[in-house]
Amino acid sequence: MSSVDSLSASAAVVVDGVSMAFNPGRSNQVDALVDIDVSIHRGDFVSLIGPSGCGKSTLLRLIANLIEPTAGTVLVNGKSAAQSRLDQDYGMAFQQSGLFEWRTVRKNIELPLELKGWEKAKRRKRADEMLDLVQLADFGSHLPWQLSGGMQQRVAIARALASHPPLLLMDEPFGALDEMTREHMQAELLRICAAAETTVVFVTHSIPEAVYLSNRVVVMSPRPGRITEIVDVDLGSERDDDTREDDLFYKKITEVREALRGAESRVAGDGGEPGRGRGVEDR
Amino acid sequence: MRFLRSVWNVLVPPLIVGVLFVGTWEIIVRVFDIQPFLLPAPSSIWSTLGDNWTKVWDAMVVTGANAFVGLLFGVICGVALSFVLMRFNVVNELVTPLAVALNAIPIIVLVPVFNNMFASTTEIPRRLMVTLIVSFIVLLNVAKGLRQVSAIHMELLQSYAASKSEILRKARIPNATSYLFTALKIAAPVAVITAFVSEYFGGSQNGLGYGITSNAAVSRTAASWGYVVGACLLGLAFYLAAVVLERLASPTARPAPRSTSSPRSINPNTTNQQVRGIDPGGATA
Fold it and tell me: Which of A32, A199, B107, B256 could form a disulfide with A58 if both were Cys (CB 3.0 to 4.6 A apart)?
């Protein structure tokens, strides 16, 4: 278990004693997250992994301040999550690229900048830089539907990073891609984030993906969502296709899998009625 | 070249069906010697239409003008109302079921009432009728477009700390635009039909509908059919105008999916959706 490091300047995200219940106080109350403590250092790449329903996407949305926690506090860059959202301190990408289909690729990337009030020339310049970064320089005037899935997702990442936010929040961004495109995109993401020194919180349910990308893998268990283990991974900053055949890569995959299995057996150990007992109050 | 071929592909099948249909009609009328006051042959309709063309054209202008004015005001009212509905939830809950219900009944029967309310020798009652019907079509569609912004777009805009008016400008209005054109494509022919049928309920004696009834009443069936042809042309013209307008407004919009395989089938949402989920660890085996 991680302890919340004191609110040091190096913490990009601090989640302190956060619980999230949907429909609180009603008979259909769902405890999505219970007592989450985690802190993420600047420049870290942290993956949240766990089976469906473990609250990993909910945790990401709490950090993004798209929802408010029932209890506890979330700090992003030393500010409240709400303030960070208003300051547009982070970029976000989802499983669907969520491009605005009536806007060209370049205009999609410019959207967050428009909302920040940037003037046109500056927006355009930055959009072109981002297009270069994701290697889509020739596609600025295309419409989203004219691009392949991997290309659309690259545009979404370019958009998320357009204002050079210190933090990138990603919710299974490569979940809808085929395995080859996916591995390529993972390498691209590492390259891009290293170049921009971005902190990343990355939700996935692919173990190899989490291990390949992350410094730390946060393993979560469902009903109610909680953190069961944090696995430190250090495959070095120079990761390439050979890394995927590295012994350390396999070792870390095994470690994460066992952590996940441990989380599952704890659920199964409850005897057919998962989510009850285990010293956690459901209501 | 490619464009011409695609136009050719679209036009030829219906043309063949049309020629077959008219040919069969002609043959049946001749073979069974059907009386012209019952069903005139296409050839005699064509020659009567040639003789009457100026009259039919004048009637098309009258009915067309009614349909156009009604369509224009209907679109304006419909769009304006849909913004009100989007802004005020209470109004939405009050009006939407009413609009749906009104849309389901043939409110065209209100024309005689309008004829009484306004001078029946003016075109106002008919135009009002068209306005009313078009408003509902536009209202229901555009209101839907304004409201149903995809969840992911809303979350993104929220993450950009977008204000309500920014969400309106960046997401709701562009989203509603395609709904508006869909509504327009439905409403344009309906406007012609409404303007046309309204003439059956009295009022000025100058439009296509009047041309049909007056000629049919004195058994000049072929002349009646000439006005039917005029009505078809008018409806088609309105529909095509709506399609052209849509093209002009969004020239690069995604083409509507067609059953024939298209080279543009690289969209991930349709092809790669199944490749996801927990990796059982094939890579590690």
Answer: A32
Q: Closest residue of B to A143, CA-based? A: B252
Q: For A176, which of B254, B268, B278 is closest by C-beta distance?
A: B268
pLDDT tens-digit profile, chain B (285 residues): 667 777 788 888 888 998 999 899 888 888 888 887 788 888 888 888 888 888 888 888 888 998 999 999 999 999 998 888 888 877 777 877 887 777 777 777 777 778 778 776 778 888 888 998 899 889 888 988 888 888 889 888 988 888 888 888 888 998 888 899 989 999 999 999 888 888 887 777 788 888 888 888 887 888 888 888 889 889 999 999 998 888 888 766 665 544 433 333 333 333 333 333 333 333 333
Amino acid A108 reads N
Q: How many pairs of residues across A and B have Cβ atoms under 8 Å apart?
A: 105
Using CB atoms, pick whichever of A112, A146, A205 lies closest to residue B160: A112
Quote the domain boundaries for residue B119: 44-250
Q: Letter for the amino acid at A267?
A: V
In a domain, B55, yes or no: yes
- Asked whether A131 and A140 are in contact (CB, 8 A), the reply is yes
Position A185 in a domain: no
Q: Does residue A183 lie within any of the structural domains? A: no
Residue B251's DSSP bridge partners are: none
This complex has an ipTM of 0.78
- Those residues whose C-beta lies under 8 Å from the C-beta of residue B85, and which sit 6 or more positions away, are B91, B92, B95, B96, B139, B143, B146
- Same domain for A105 and A33: no
Check whether residue A231 and residue A101 sit in a common domain.
Answer: no
Same domain, A170 and A265: yes
On whether residue A188 sits in a domain, the answer given is no
Interface test with A, best of B154, B155, B159 (most A CBs within 10 A): B159
Q: Work out how many domains chain B is built from and give that number.
A: 1
Nearest-Cα residue of chain B relative to residue A65: B159
CB B110 within 8 A of CB B129: yes
